[in-house]
Amino acid sequence: MARLQLHDLQLARSGQTVLEHLDGSFQDGAITALIGANGAGKSTLISAIMGMLPPVAGRVECKVPRERCAWLPQQLALDLTFPMSVEELIMTGTWPSHGALKGYCAAHYRRGREIMGQLGISHLAHRQLGELSGGQRQRALIGRTLMQEAELLLLDEPFANVDGETVEVLMEVLRDMATAGATILVVLHDMEQLSRLADDVLLLASGHGRWVGTEALLDHHTGQPARAPRLPIDFSDLPHAGTA
Length: 244
Ligand SMILES: Nc1ncnc2c1ncn2[C@@H]1O[C@H](COP(=O)(O)OP(=O)(O)OP(=O)(O)O)[C@@H](O)[C@H]1O
Fold this sequence. Notes:
Blueprint: E1 4-13, E2 16-26, E3 31-35, H1 42-49, E4 57-62, E5 69-72, H2 86-91, H3 95-98, H4 106-118, H5 134-147, E6 152-156, H6 164-179, E7 183-187, H7 191-197, E8 200-205, E9 208-212, E10 242-243
Parallel strand pairs: 3-7, 3-8, 5-6, 6-7
Antiparallel strand pairs: 1-2, 1-4, 8-9, 9-10
Helix pairs in contact: 4-5, 5-6
Adenosine-5'-triphosphate (ATP) binds at residues 13-14, 18, 36, 38-44.
């Protein structure tokens, strides 16, 4: 039984229904891409999964403990101007399970150094967050979720404003996390990235969800992504594997 499931979910914003009759399971140990046009309800669904938006009807069933759930909003939504170094940010990943006031032990610092090494940001350990590039900042933020040992990871456009090398590093880290069993849900607009990363696709359109096989998004002749790498995507003609 998947640890994250939607049961006839209905979500609204300001009294207006955004999504309804959403059903389905997110596979454990898999990466699901959440796609849809602007305003389709991707962030709304993520808010509901994180327990920040109560459903109008139906429910989100999440068996992952709260301290193992991580949510990485769009970079633009983050205020990272407060005084904190990369290492300090990564260490805060221990807070959900360990508490913010207990301090860190040697094992935490060791793990923090390992994570910075894996993400190629060891040399930035003492750099302030406000002095990082978009890609460096995103590596640090993913580092925090690794420190947290996240089992459910929700990411909203994690590769936006990020350099190509960082995209490669982050894709590898996300794949490793999924292989280790994490459930990963990622909002993506870039079809080439989607075709490389996603095991499953949940498409939101016209207030409903459809589970779409990743192969449906490829050009049948070339095997390459069928559309230009950025939105708008014409969602109306996508074959689908079932109604969500
Ligand atoms: N806080 C809010 N109050 C009222 N309406 C909202 C709020 N947040 C979103 N909405 C509305 O809910 C609908 C879904 O928005 P949502 O942000 O979930 O879409 P999205 O798919 O994430 O879009 P984008 O790709 O632009 O980020 C939109 O019509 C939006 O205007």
